[in-house]
Design a protein that fits this description.
489 residues; mainly beta
């Protein structure tokens, strides 16, 4: 009888310890909470090993021979990030994860580290150290979000106007120097109104439409909404399986062909995705007629930018900016692109033509993603001296929405002084084909803040009372003001 009681007690003890034993003995070495979330994906991660588990148990890096992924458990939901860590081909130093306050520190040796903290939307980059470059996040007044980073490198400093949620963070394309940040500030200013073509991540949760099992067989995927006139990946065989899942990013209606094309993102493999275009009728049977008959529908073609950019170094074009970032095309320095939009914080969405793997005129149309860090704008010609002279003086807003810091004084030497900022200014001619402003102004006003390096670009028009500045949605009118004390040059 005594042996039976002891056996029963031992069995009960083992049952009580079983969850802990399973969790601590799993092949990844994860905490029970993170293990349950990872293992709930079936055999998806069976070929992966744990590189380093965070001491709090809510963050880990899993790696395979070809692929590494950062995993976070936020409010009981497992989130995975490929761009946040280096991949095996990068041959980076050994990675470590350490708990830090309400977040964690991701490090690759003593010279490279990234500190993330958890806010209401997910993990947010708070500080970064990359070689001798240090970036420190600045919180808004409510202390709920970071809206810019103060960067210091030796004796130089600049401000990077960015919010790096973990879902946007791209370790391979993260700036490495003050000069790179200045160039990205220029591009952000020049292309600011092109960031809404695709849905942006709200924290770490993208606002996109999911489709599953929409049909049988496969559907051809093209890089642009032009059917067979567009380049097609996978040696011309790129296709999506219709019995799986895909995500709708945007629908394009072609007025010339009468066809609608759906911009989708789908998984090619466990470590590769693709963004491309399929016939819209695959997802919505009446897509062609619905878009053609409804003249009030928002048509993304009308929102595309047409801004010329140039590669400042050898880089690449990818159709997978979110996961593998696999280079579909090598891009030599000096290559010109037509930029249509920004994609997140790291990529420009561009259009070009290709033949036999080379960028040419008259080839197949390709739309894809090029690292923003590797591009620069082709600056338009500066306006004539007589046009610039019309701005010299002190101005204040009198109507509409404020487009810049004011009152502002423009000096003849190309500097300006505003109420809280100062820097340099210039006026450039503007081509309405660029599609940046709602009112197609003849000029652009470029302001570069002296202390922060921030670049502000606005459409510029003159009238009998002064001038007006505009962006993609509105404008503000400015008239002469009394010269501010100390602003007389």
């Amino acid at each position: 009888m005594r042996k039976s009681i002891l056996a029963l007690m031992l069995s009960l003890t083992l049952l009580m310890l079983l969850p802990w034993v399973c969790a601590s003995a799993n092949q990844w070495g994860l905490s029970s909470e993170l293990y349950d979330a990872v293992s709930s994906a079936g055999n998806t991660w069976d070929s992966y090993n744990s590189t380093k588990a965070q001491t709090s148990g809510t963050v880990a890096i899993l790696g395979s021979r070809y692929h590494n992924v950062l995993m976070c458990l936020v409010d009981g939901t497992l989130r995975t990030y490929t761009k946040a860590v280096y991949q095996p081909d990068d041959q980076a130093e050994r990675v470590t994860l350490d708990a830090a306050g309400n977040g964690f520190v991701l490090s690759y040796g003593p010279a490279e580290s990234y500190t993330f903290t958890l806010n209401a939307e997910g993990y947010l980059l708070e500080k970064a150290q990359v070689g001798d470059l240090t970036l420190t996040g600045c919180w808004n007044e409510e202390g709920q979000d970071i809206y810019r980073y103060e960067a210091v490198q030796g004796a130089e400093s600049v401000v990077w106007y960015s919010t790096q949620h973990l879902g946007d963070f791209n370790i391979s394309l993260f700036p490495r120097s003050i000069s790179e940040i200045r160039r990205m500030n220029v591009l952000q200013g020049a292309l600011k109104d092109g960031s809404s073509l695709f849905p942006r991540s709200d924290g770490d949760v993208p606002s996109i439409g999911r489709y599953a099992q929409v049909g049988q067989g496969t559907e051809a995927v093209y890089s642009a909404p032009y059917g067979e006139n567009a380049w097609r990946a996978a040696d011309g065989k790129a296709a999506v399986g219709l019995n799986g899942e895909l995500w709708l990013l945007r629908t394009f209606y072609d007025d010339f062909t009468g066809e609608a094309y759906a911009c989708i993102r789908y998984a090619v493999s466990q470590r590769t995705q693709r963004i491309g275009y399929i016939r819209g009728t695959v997802l919505e049977p009446d897509a062609d007629t619905a878009w053609a008959e409804d003249s009030t529908s928002w048509r993304p073609y009308d929102e595309l930018l047409n801004v010329s950019l140039r590669a400042v170094c050898d880089t690449y074009l990818t159709d997978d900016p979110d996961v593998s970032q696999y280079p579909q095309f090598d891009v030599p320095a000096g290559t010109l692109f037509n930029c249509m939009a920004l994609y997140g914080e790291s990529y420009a969405y561009v259009g070009a033509e290709v033949r036999d793997g080379q960028f040419v005129d008259g080839g197949a149309i390709v739309w894809g993603f090029v690292p923003l860090r590797d591009l620069e704008p082709l600056y338009a010609q500066e306006a004539s001296q007589s046009v610039r002279d019309r701005l010299i003086g002190t101005w204040a807003i009198t109507a509409g929405g404020n487009m810049i810091d004011d009152p502002i004084t423009f000096f003849a030497d190309g500097t300006y002084q505003a109420s809280v900022t100062q820097g340099t200014w210039t006026v450039r001619e503007y081509n309405a084909f660029c599609n940046l402003y709602w009112n197609d102004p003849p000029y652009e006003l470029w302001l570069t803040e002296e202390d922060t390096g921030r670049v502000t670009v606005r459409g510029l028009s003159f009238d009998s009372n002064g001038f007006s500045l505009s962006n993609s949605e509105g404008s503000g009118g400015y008239e002469p003001a009394v010269l501010l004390p100390g602003n007389n040059g």
